[in-house]
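Sequence, please.
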């Protein structure tokens, strides 16, 4: 049953080779486990960041409460476009200073920024016009002098339409369709769009 070892010098050679192989396998397994743990940690961090960004993009929404256009004195085109906005329930603070606006009509597509295409003005008392903090806050976004602001130099005339896309600091987007009525009173100074 047991092998008899004739030479005492041959006794430990087989055991050392096995021990070296075992240590090598443990080292390889430890390195592989370290790589897997690092990769899992990196993926978890990336997934957490993506989840947070997605949640902000979905939750941070701007709503247009009312929109109207001011008619120019010399014709019947819309000279100034005004949007009264609020933040949706559950949204974080929306910073209007870092918000951009994409104005797209049949004639042009322009990217506008605060004080370089549009201005803001508080509608509610004690509200800073640069951020929507509370759901009750109302801020008016004004695109003044459309013919000067837009590259093509066209105002919105009767029956014209455009899309205004508001993009906040988190990347959340809200699109609002502007449609000028085909006809309106000649004495009107303002028209709902």
């Amino acid at each position: 049953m047991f092998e008899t070892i004739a030479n005492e010098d041959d006794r430990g050679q087989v055991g050392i080779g096995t021990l070296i192989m075992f240590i090598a396998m443990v080292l390889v397994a430890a390195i592989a486990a370290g790589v897997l743990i690092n990769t899992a940690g990196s993926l978890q961090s990336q997934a957490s960041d993506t989840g947070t960004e997605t949640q902000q993009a979905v939750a941070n929404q701007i709503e247009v409460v009312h929109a109207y256009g001011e008619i120019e004195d010399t014709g019947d085109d819309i000279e100034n476009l005004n949007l009264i906005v609020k933040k949706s329930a559950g949204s974080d603070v929306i910073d209007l200073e870092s918000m951009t606006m994409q104005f797209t009509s049949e004639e042009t597509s322009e990217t506008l920024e605060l004080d370089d295409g549009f201005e803001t003005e508080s509608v509610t008392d004690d509200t800073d016009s640069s951020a929507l903090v509370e759901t009750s806050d109302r801020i008016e976004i004004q695109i003044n002098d459309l013919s000067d602001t837009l590259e093509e130099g066209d105002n919105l005339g009767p029956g014209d339409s455009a899309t205004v896309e508001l993009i906040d600091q988190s990347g959340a987007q809200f699109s609002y369709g502007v449609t000028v009525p085909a006809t309106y009173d000649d004495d009107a100074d303002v028209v709902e769009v």
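The first strand starts at residue 62 and ends at 71.
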